[in-house]
Fold GTPase Era.
Amino acid sequence: MDAQTPETRAGFVALIGAPNAGKSTLLNQLVGAKVSIVSRKVQTTRALVRGIAIEGQAQIVFVDTPGIFAPKRRLDRAMVHSAWGGAGDADVVCLLLDARKGLDEEGEAILARMPELKQPKGLILNKVDLVERPTLLGLAASLNERLAFDHTFMVSALTGSGVDRMREVLAREMPAGPWLYPEDQVSDAPLRMLAAEITREKLYERLHDELPYESTVETDQWQNRKDGSVRIEQTVFVERESQRKIVLGKGGQTIKAIGQAARRDIAEAAEAPVHLFLFVKVRENWSDDPERYREMGLEFPRER
């Protein structure tokens, strides 16, 4: 590399925070593509989702962790363990807070554990467009008194305000070294997994309050056809027959609408026309099955 060529940098930034702080929306904004599902339903990000951004000569791998909360069920414990594991492995850890809520009980619990992490730390206040400036500055000051953050970012994940500056600052924090992924790659999630996640997002959008978040989607078949299109078969798994009826809807109308919405986003991600076929099956107590956790990239927690 000659003296005129700036050295390349590459590293990981973990985004941690309470459920629904806006991590998935921010990740998609940072990367400039849909890599993480966004839902009003809390705790929709289950495993670590990595989105890859290029800023100058730096490649930043953003890790969207599951929301950190007080775990009650086995799946909850696996997700929280995954979130802290993702934070521990990163070069920089950023705590994301909803500026409208300020430091609530969940945020307080995360903040209390952050001194255990040795790497540089950033504070991201999200939804700043909805908060008066004096309130915002007061919140940032009080949080920095509690923990000396290396950087404080004021952003709106929804509009993209402040996101470019955040990416520039974090790029300078990345260690020198070769890039970890090809230049045109925006996520390390295989397309099959991303397609399943997209369908799960559409499921929640359509049936927000009617469906427990244990429901899951698996991509069973992915067939690249000669005409350049992709034929995909997916199964939506629920835990009870009553839930299966809700997902299907009257005359199959609900699952049809979910499939149409998912197909559009999957086609965009796959950069190909998509033929999507959805099936709904009951699989009781899947949240106690270690194999399902491995498929989601989670460690199966033993009962304590």
